[in-house]
């Protein structure tokens, strides 16, 4: 199964019924606008943790009906994050969203030693892109969390993404491990890692996936480019997920799709007990809404 675009994700999420999302420090206009979109689509029921008076004021400004929402009063952002995480742990919410709180403080709360959301796995970011001209969503990992992952960390990042993508019905998943070119070179560690991951895939270590690499971007998306280069490929340009070598590559690839190709982007953090919506201040309410959709799609995965 594949998803043609974000609307197909929304349709799938709606078929699962409403998921409860705990929002930490929820007095944020753009976040509440995204909550409004998701609530009106029937995707979520919000648990809003923060300054209740500010939340009510902002909600009135944007036309968000709070009748079905649960409000938990807490003016301190870090304490609000802790209470939102408590709501998840206590079964009051299926997943977590960051509001008006510093990302590092928010993640420290997520990973707190007692009553945190640790699993022992690496946290990683998975982004989805709807790119004009492509008939399916493209996924990228990890352009948001891990700076320069080594091979063992790339294995964990790959496993996080596979757990999510297979959990939402994608099987098999075509994965390209990106590098500058297709030549394995000890002076370019990313090519060595890509070769190792491809060999692991051939040995059956990533069930439900085909992993190929190293490949440059043209070979990842173009069967014509592969033919010109004389490269044999099972994926043959039909990629679902890019595994990038560093955070810079993921960041530039993602922003290039958005700013040069007009793509729509959304992303979530994986590896905790539940999916986490951790968006940027630059993200539009619709992008935040799509991230909520991603998290709501399969509330049993982590």
Automatic annotation (TrEMBL):
GO terms for molecular function: acyltransferase activity. It holds the Pfam family PTA_PTB. The chain crosses the membrane at residues 257-278. Residues 8-74, 81-295 form the Phosphate acetyl/butaryl transferase domain. Keywords: Acyltransferase, Membrane, Transferase, Transmembrane, Transmembrane helix. Belongs to the phosphate acetyltransferase and butyryltransferase family. PANTHER family: PHOSPHATE ACETYLTRANSFERASE. This is Phosphotransbutyrylase.
